Amino acid sequence: MNLKDLARQLGLSQTTVSRALNGYDDVNEDTRQRVIAAARAGGYQPNPTARRLAIGRADAIGIVYPLDAHDLGDPQFLEVVAGMTESLDQIGMDLIIASSSPADELRSYQRMIRGRRVDGLVVARTRVHDPRLEFLQAENFPFVAYGRSALAQPYAWFDFDNAAGLEMAVTRLVGLGHRRIALLGAEPEFNFAQLRREGFAQGMRAAGLALSPDSFAVCTLDRRGGYQGMTALLARDPRPTAVVVDNNLCGVGAIRAVIDAGLEIGRDISVIVYDGMPIDTLVGHHVTSVIQPTPRAVGAKLAALMLARIAGKPIESLQVLWQPELQPGDSDGPPI
Fold first, then answer.
1. Average pLDDT, stretch 136-150?
2. Are 63 and 95 in contact (CB under 8 A)?
3. How far apart are the first and last CA of the chain?
């Protein structure tokens, strides 16, 4: 059954039937329900290309991601994507992931918008000063930032309280008796890394512990960076008795470096990893972690915020901050 057949069966114009199926509010509810029931009974399936042209929508949400092999091994990323996909699928929308090199990322956003490939964009791994968000805001294109930024104008965002999570980790280590605590983290150009650094500093100050350049070590956002950063920390004299790693990608490399150095995790040195460890990582430890406990729920929330943004809801109502949790493991203990 096509649209013409459906309209003839109902005794309505094709325009009325099309507008009823697409949710336009100038069709009364009784007519809408009659059209929907007849469409279901007759097995009517709209032509997706024609529908998109008619309503001016792509029926898709996009993520432009500087994707590499490390991200494909990041269970947090994959779980969030799964949550978004499930939510959008329920209303017949697609999630499109467009990979991009970091150098070409902004042009990918331009192509997605100007080609009308998506109705809105979720922006991941926000930076303190983020040209992607500035571009989308200038274009007045619907977006939700997965993480906050220093934009001057209000915008829709979802984030966890990164500073609180790191302060929580420091408080735990101080309670175990540690005084030489270091933070191994991603470049502070990433907003999450900057906020986690601030939380680390707040936790140290609250415990009356001095901060110095030796309190921080920066690494690239991957396993190799975590390995090299932890190796450098272990070479210090005196070395820290505890290290907080501010992301799970670096955390894998950091734990491997401790093992390769012949040290016993949780006794010779304590380690806490933000976002925990991938379940398939063979380190032989249940690593103490600051976790975002519901990644699929995060994906569902991002999808809901994105749809609300497209629908024109007030931006100030589309700013959501959730709290992380600390999950104890066996990778931390009193200093020896």
1. 94
2. yes
3. 76
